[in-house]
Design a protein that fits this description.
Layout (H helix, E strand, L loop, with lengths): L2 H19 L9 E2 L9 H6 L1 H12 L2 E6 L2 E6 L2 H9 L7 H17 L6 H16 L9 H18 L8 H16 L1 H4 L8 H23 L10 H8 L5 H28 L2 H15 L10 H4 L3 H14 L4 E4 L14 E4 L1 H4 L16 H4 L26 H18 L18
Parallel strand pairs: 1-2, 3-5
Antiparallel strand pairs: 2-3, 4-5
Helix pairs in contact: 5-11, 6-7, 6-18, 7-12, 8-10, 10-12, 12-15, 12-18, 15-18
The chain binds protoporphyrin IX containing FE.
Protoporphyrin IX containing FE (HEM) binds next to α5, α12 and α18.
GO molecular function: heme binding; iron ion binding; oxysterol 7-alpha-hydroxylase activity
Cofactor: heme
Pfam families: p450
Length: 432
């Protein structure tokens, strides 16, 4: 064997031994080890994240660390620990980033607060109707695709303004294709060098160029006295420094991805439980009369349809997205978490804690699950993390509940649905 190759082999072996047996603080959480430097457990995690984490939780207990793509990720699996963690100041986002964006986030929270929602309801209704009208009177379609087709342009026009965004059908399709690529590898794209993700990186560059064009258009546009400003116009008036296109891309991503999935699951749960579907239709007909006519749905009407709101919250409980992330330096359960560790809590686990949600796997849409929550006053249930927690909780939560509520009413009223395929497995049965 060549001497250079021997030296290289020794180096690689040394590195592997270091990663496997490096000395660690006895008070750090147990670590899920892997012999691949830097990548760590990325492959096993990427294949089936929830199964991987469930196995790690069974083996290591409620707080454990996984090394992935150069990051130490510490998972916190118990509801009480997670609640404490999301409230504490010691677990926060990157301070430098947050200082720059603090005022912008405050502005978004203010703009999308419950008392301001009426501003959006007319545009939302107009846009939903325009796009639902395009769908025609009958047909067979993938439910997720149907929701996406309607929600995508509606959110764009509502948040950015009617005259902005992709200008024609082919541009819209191109936008959607790049956005889909961007979303598909978002988790990896935000952690890995872009060199490994050529398609993701190309689509991100395309989208950033498009957002830069939109920013220029919005800034050139002089709104008339009667025009009320859109959320994005408010953001642009207050955003100082570089990176505005990047910020808008992330804002648009945050507003789209979870909202489309939330609306899809709400409809899927309703349609796959005939008794729930029947009850919801009776409620809608009691407010709007016989289904099938054209209706106007405004914020106030939605209050008369509380069961749909319960279905939305329950669907989000069972299908909440991945994980909520913070950066840490805080002892949790007597463990010292090294500074810089990424701390993760998972709504998936929290929402299956029977102490907070009895019979957690069952879709309980009606009063027995949600009777404790004061939905009129916009209060959720303890242990409910669908929109995160603490001061970085999702500022779009009330807006997204309202838009989902509206879309579900409009679609259920216009169409009579029959499911042709089984719903992907999420729950076993409905509890009414
Ligand atoms: C069903 C729909 C939605 C769900 C389930 C959802 C969920 C979440 C979650 C879990 C977070 C992380 C919170 C945390 O770290 O504690 C978040 C953050 C965020 N969401 Fe949403 N979201 C939805 C819709 C929206 C919409 C429609 C918008 C905007 C119009 C939006 C804007 C944001 C923003 C800007 C953040 C970052 C907040 C911050 O870092 O301080 N979201 N969302």
């Amino acid at each position: 064997m060549d001497i250079d190759v021997t030296v290289l082999l020794c180096l690689v072996l040394g590195l592997i031994m270091y990663f496997l047996f490096q000395p660690r603080n006895p008070n750090s959480p147990p670590c899920v080890s892997s012999w691949i430097p830097w990548f760590g457990a990325a492959f096993q995690f990427g294949k089936a994240p929830l199964e991987f984490l469930e196995q790690a939780r069974i083996k290591h207990g409620p707080v454990f660390t996984v090394y992935i793509l150069g990051n130490r990720l510490t998972f916190v699996a118990e509801t009480e620990d997670a609640l404490e963690l999301l409230r504490t100041k010691e677990a926060d986002f990157d301070e430098a980033v947050m200082q720059n964006l603090f005022l912008i986030f405050k502005l978004i929270v203010r703009q999308l607060s419950p008392s301001n929602l009426h501003q959006f309801s007319e545009t939302l209704w107009d846009e939903f109707h325009e796009h639902v009208d395009h769908l025609g009177k009958e047909g067979t379609e993938d439910l997720n695709e149907l929701v996406r087709q309607v929600m995508f342009p509606t959110i764009m026009k509502t948040l950015f303004g009617k005259s902005f965004g992709p200008t024609n059908k082919s541009r819209t399709e191109e936008f959607e294709r790049h956005f889909q690529n961007f979303d598909d590898e978002f988790e990896f794209g935000s952690q890995m060098p872009e060199f490994f993700l050529r398609k993701w990186s190309k689509s991100k560059t395309w989208l950033l160029t498009e957002f830069e064009r939109i920013v220029t258009d919005i800034k050139k546009h002089k709104p008339s006295e009667s025009d009320s400003k859109t959320l994005v116009q408010h953001v642009l008036d207050n955003f100082h420094g570089n990176g505005v296109a990047n910020f808008l891309l992330l804002l648009f991503w945050a507003s789209q991805v979870n909202a489309v999935s939330g609306a899809f699951w709400t409809l899927a749960f309703i349609l796959s439980h005939p008794s729930i579907y029947k009850n919801i239709m009776e409620e809608i007909v009691s407010v709007y009369g016989k289904a099938g006519n054209k209706i106007e749905v405004f914020e106030d009407d939605l209050r008369k349809l509380p069961s749909i709101k319960q279905c939305i919250l329950e669907a989000l409980r069972l299908t909440s997205p991945g994980v909520i992330m913070r950066k840490a330096m805080k002892p949790i359960k007597n463990f010292v978490i090294p500074p810089g560790d990424l701390l993760l809590v998972s709504p998936y686990w929290m929402h299956r804690n029977p102490k907070y949600f009895p019979e957690p796997e069952i879709f309980k849409w009606s009063h027995d699950r949600w009777k404790e929550a004061n939905l009129e006053k916009n209060a959720f249930l303890d242990g409910y993390f669908a929109f995160g927690g603490g001061k970085n909780r999702c500022p779009g939560r009330w807006f997204s509940i309202m838009e989902t509520h509206m879309l579900v009413v409009i679609l259920l009223y216009k169409y009579q649905f029959t499911l042709l395929d089984p719903v992907p497995k999420q729950v076993t049965s409905a509890g009414i």
